[in-house]
Amino acid sequence: MLVGLNGLAIYIARAELSKLWLVAVLGFGIALSFATERLVPYESSWNAPHDDVARDWLHFSVNEVSNIISVAALPVLAGLRRFGDRWPHEWPFASQMLAAVIVFDFGITMTHWASHRLPVLWRLHAVHHSVKRFYGFNGMMKHPLHQTVEMTVAILPLLLLGLPQPVAAALATITAVQLLMQHSNVDYRVGQLRYILALNEGHRFHHLKWGGVGDVNFGLFTNLWDHLLGTWSFDPKRRFTSDDIGIGKEPNFPSGYMAQLLTPFQKRDL
User: Fold this and answer.
1) I need a surface site. Which of 3, 144, 168, 256 has the fewest CB within 10 A?
2) What is the three-class DSSP state of 151?
3) Do residues 147 and 57 make contact, with C-beta atoms less than 8 angstroms apart?
4) Alpha carbons 45 and 9: distance in angstroms, whole number
5) Are 196 and 222 in contact (CB under 8 A)?
6) Is there a contact between 116 and 247 (Cβ–Cβ < 8 Å)?
7) Are the beta carbons of 130 and 264 closer than 8 angstroms?
């Protein structure tokens, strides 16, 4: 998925083929993720539904449709720029993608970090941490308002630079693939690359439910910014179960889709 699906998505975007091919790549990625979780699970019990299947599909559908709309709106947004196009169009497409990922990852990491410290953002971000199991679709489980804030902070610098639509389309696709891999219930390991790539081995620590312990490993694509922030943490001997993840202070956080949309606006202890 990291090399094959992402590489295919980048090729499709670079060749400016129909965006439906990118949808197909993502669909195949979801199917591959679910199949692999059953073949080599990290925790077998996480493959069983926890009364969350319909809810997670709703989160995925709403958030991915908003991503597609955002990419489609890029030509309009480009017309609103007033200070010219500063994007390095002359660079090889792969280099443009790498630059976009690094800038995008910085915005996501900093918003994620702030979401654990600012109550107004935590109210929205808590939806993502309320899970009872750790599997691929957890990455798509976000309050739409939090996703809007996160994406705006991450994508705005790129838009101001003149982000081309093909790069944006590839970035949207590989972001979804990355979220699948980062939250995957697959017992895979990447060796020393775990210190560079923000994959599931390290991200499980971010979902620890005890206060302060889970304030680590905020990166989406890389751990670069976590190392600089001093928020990277990893223990190769640590093993996780459902008892370790969730929100310690809010064990009864609502599990229904509409309830999760409304809960951030209701009075509760944080």
Assistant:
1) 3
2) helix
3) no
4) 32
5) yes
6) no
7) no
* Spatial CA neighbour of 48 closest among 34, 66, 31: 34
Cα separations in angstroms, 101 against 220, 239, 262? 10, 30, 32
Say how far apart CA 84 and CA 18 lie, in whole Å. 28
Token pair recorded at residue 208: 């620890």
- What is d(CA 126, CA 136) in angstroms, rounded to the nearest whole number? 18
CA distance 83 to 86: 9
Alpha carbon distance 74, 31 (integer Å): 29
3-state SS record for 16-54: CCCCHHHHHHHHHHHHHHHHHHHHCECCHHHHCCCCCHH
pLDDT, one tens digit for every residue, the chain (270 residues):
999 999 999 999 999 999 899 999 999 999 999 999 999 999 999 999 988 999 999 999 999 888 878 777 766 665 566 566 889 999 999 999 999 999 999 999 999 999 999 999 999 999 999 998 999 999 989 999 999 999 999 999 998 898 998 999 999 999 999 999 999 999 999 999 999 999 999 999 999 987 666 689 999 999 999 999 999 999 999 999 999 999 988 888 999 999 999 999 987 665
Measuring CA to CA, how many Å separate 68 from each of 171, 202, 257? 11, 29, 21
Closest Cα to residue 19, out of 179, 166, 140, 158? 166
- pTM > 0.90: yes or no: yes
CA distances from 100 to 50, 109, 163, 167 (A): 36, 14, 8, 8
Rounded Cα distance between 266 and 166, Å, is: 40
- Distance in angstroms between the alpha carbons of the first and the last residue of the chain: 37
